[in-house]
Amino acid sequence: MSSLIALVISYLLGSLSSAVITSRIFKFPDPRSEGSGNAGATNVLRTAGKKPALYAVIGDILKGFIAVIIGRLLGLEGAMLGLVAFIAVIGHIFPIFFGFKGGKGVATAIGSLLGLSIIMGISTALIWIVVAYVTRYASLASLIAIAAGALLTLIFHHPAYFFPVLLTAAVITWKHKDNIDRLKKGNESKIKI
To answer: Fewest Cβ atoms closer than 10 Å to its Cβ: which of 81, 111, 114, 126?
Structure first.
């Protein structure tokens, strides 16, 4: 029963769209109808600026982190805790509160990784920051960081998390399919940091 409760809470937390909520608070247009149409922090950066984007990314990280901590408090561990992390990302991507039209899940995944292992989460975030800084492509940074997250489960001796994190990476990669096409064609939008 604890597993089911944790999974439901994780999905509901994930479904709280920080990008949409932040845009509403700051009286900016809904990011799902502006810019790239994605309900994520990168699109909020483009449509509303740095401050709202910062709040959106912090909110997304926190909801992933909190979901995993609740799972821990309910006694979950190993692959089941990894599944809780994955479900938070699914909630972000397909939020029940926002018509199942969410973001791509990267910041929520990083927050979930922080909940699973601080060192894995920090390492994944640092990889994202370095790649984004060097290339100016948020999408490329996201793809590399989340793929690295799966490898980090093995490097930092958390093999029980490997498959849930790998599944998370696969879903996030799928959500980036249009970005991957644009990267291949050389017309992906760059971010200003």
So the answer is: 126
